[in-house]
Amino acid sequence: MLKACYSIRMRAAERSPELGEKHISGGERIGSKSQVEPIVKQLLKKASNHSRGDADFIQITVEKIAHDQIQYISPLEVTTVEEASIEKARSEARKILTSLGVSEHALDVAFHQLSSNQNLRGAIILNSKTGLRLDERGQKGVRVSRIDWQDADGDLNERVGEALALASKVANSPFTIAELCWSDDPDYVTGYVSNRGIGYVRITPLKRDGCESGGRVYFVSDEVELESFINYLESVPVLIRRD
Ligand code: WAQ
Ligand code: MG
Ligand code: MG
Ligand code: MG
């Protein structure tokens, strides 16, 4: 008999009457009944002592998911590119994304968004040709959820394992042309570009140490069925497994 599975999501924010809500951290996991408690602890720990600030609001949501809806997908291959400067790293990222069919204009929009946005909770969806933003989520963006590794993620650290799982789910959609990401955490300057053909290409440094801007951009094709794409990202449970 198949055991019940749970989606466990966390979001943490700092709230001030003057500045409103600042995004601190988020997390999304999937586990069996006996894993719920350790996962909740891990997500609480992730939300606390965060480099973006002291969370004074932490929300954890636990939801049962149907076992027969889970999709199993392989992780993208990981490679790493180290550059001598942010300019060189960004130009390498642009070169790769251009080769995948992302237009110059869409790249300008994406780099501007990630360089100027300090409070993005999810991803921005851009048409890879026109650079037009397709989701209407503002600062909330689209948060990929119901995603985890089936077993251990190998010898990856927590951050890389999470990012690789997210990127693998995103790349698996036929509407995804490519992704660009770097963290909004001030102490983490490595980002990546990814898609199903090139895999997960880590690039460092994509931003200045101490900088709190970052986020994710999903470049999509003209054929995108937006509602079904967003539903896949947010709601379809996916477990990553090495085959
Ligand atoms: N779905 C969509 N967007 C997300 C999600 C998600 N589940 N989680 C984070 N984001 C967006 C959101 O705008 C965040 O502000 C931004 O990405 C950065 O999130 O190989 O740590 O968790 O060395 O700070 C990538 C490189 C690290 C890892 C990315 O992102 C490596 C990272 P963070
Ligand atoms: Mg985080
Ligand atoms: Mg994260
Ligand atoms: Mg972050």
From TrEMBL:
Pathway: Metabolic intermediate metabolism; pimeloyl-CoA biosynthesis; pimeloyl-CoA from pimelate: step 1/1
EC number(s) per entry: 6.2.1.14
Record bears the keyword Magnesium: yes
Keywords in alphabetical order: ATP-binding, Biotin biosynthesis, Ligase, Magnesium, Nucleotide-binding
Superkingdom in the source lineage: Bacteria
Pfam family, one: BioW
Single Gene Ontology MF annotation: 6-carboxyhexanoate-CoA ligase activity
Enzyme class: ligase
Catalyzed reactions per annotation: heptanedioate + ATP + CoA = 6-carboxyhexanoyl-CoA + AMP + diphosphate
CC cofactor: Mg(2+)
Task of the protein: Catalyzes the transformation of pimelate into pimeloyl-CoA with concomitant hydrolysis of ATP to AMP.
Quaternary assembly: Homodimer.
Protein family (similarity comment): Belongs to the BioW family.
Protein name per the record: 6-carboxyhexanoate--CoA ligase
Organism: Lysinibacillus zambalensis
